Amino acid sequence: MRAMFTAGNGPVQIPAETLANRVKELGAQIAQDYQGKTPHLICVLNGAFIFMADLVRAIPLPLTLDFISISSYGNAYRTSGEVELLKDLRLPIHGRDVIVVEDIVDTGLTLSYLLDYLEARKPASVRVAALLSKPSRRQVEVPIHYLGFEIEDAYVYGYGLDRAQFDRNLPFITSLHPEEE
Asked: At 1, is the pLDDT very low, low, confident or very high (cuts 50, 70, 90)?
């Protein structure tokens, strides 16, 4: 199930209950796809940390996890297009079934960089779980195997996504009005 939310004349809003229900569905799908395996989830910090926490609790399988931090935004509202590795993985992924947990796929540049970076470490497989996708902004096509929601182009924040490092703790997702971006 994919839900489409539109910006219209006001902010994009995905309520907490809608987020929780969709994360449970994604967890169930991952559990079905990885039955008999031990997936290794990699959280892309900082934006995906709340999504990751809820997602791992929704996967009734043995799993391991790690964290990586990359940036193409800094404190800006638009991507710079240049990707910087801020924190590397702690655990080896060679031969592992990896699921990258991302908050939002926008241009695809950051995720493309990350997938190439991870593939060089020779995992058994790499899939992507993304909470949000903005296909209208895509510059590089990247695979998203487990998608929460497709959204229109708006600067969204809440549920782990920030607005200049603030508002990650909102239990829902909202957006800036166009004049605020």
From this structure: very low
Residue 106 annotated among the catalytic residues of the structure: yes
Q: Which of 54, 97, 103, 106 is catalytic?
A: 106
Q: At 10, is the pLDDT very low, low, confident or very high (cuts 50, 70, 90)?
A: very low
Backbone CA torsion sign across 175, 162, 74, 83 = negative
Inside any domain, residue 81: yes
Cα 71–Cα 76–Cα 79 angle in degrees, nearest 5? 55
Q: What is the dihedral of CA 135, 145, 20, 96, to 10 degrees?
A: -140
Domain count within the chain: 1
Q: Rounded mean pLDDT of the chain?
A: 89
Domain containing 142 equals 7-180
